[in-house]
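INTERNAL AUDIT FORM
Audit reference: QA-55
Scope: verify that the stored structure record matches its stored sequence.
Auditor: D.O.
Record contents follow.
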Amino acid sequence: MRNIFVCAVILTAALRAAVPDVAGQWLVVATFDRPADGKSTPQPVKLLCTFEQHDTALAGSCRPADAPEGLPLTGTAGATTIEWSFQIAPNATAARQSAIFRGTSGSGASAMSGRFEFGESRGRFRATKQ
């Protein structure tokens, strides 16, 4: 019985060590894909996201770089993967929609990149730890 407990403790410690620390503030630059309907591509969006990390669980907030307040986010971090989401309205009169980011973290957990979805829009993002 003691051996099982010791193995569980070692496995838990190894899993924690394998997940990079992404806690802190990140500058996220999101670039939209070209729309299929031929409309012009929206300008890139800059977000400031602050992550709090508890093992693999993420919490925190994201906000447009020029906005005073952030919106709550939730997500998960893996050994090389990261995913988070939050609800935001595209303008003052629109309903909130989910913004979902899925990507991979670079070496040292100081950069990440991947894809995002916002309503029916899609695109790529790059992020750097501030």
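Auditor finding: record pair retrieved intact. Residues 6-16 have pLDDT under 50 and may be disordered.
Action required: none
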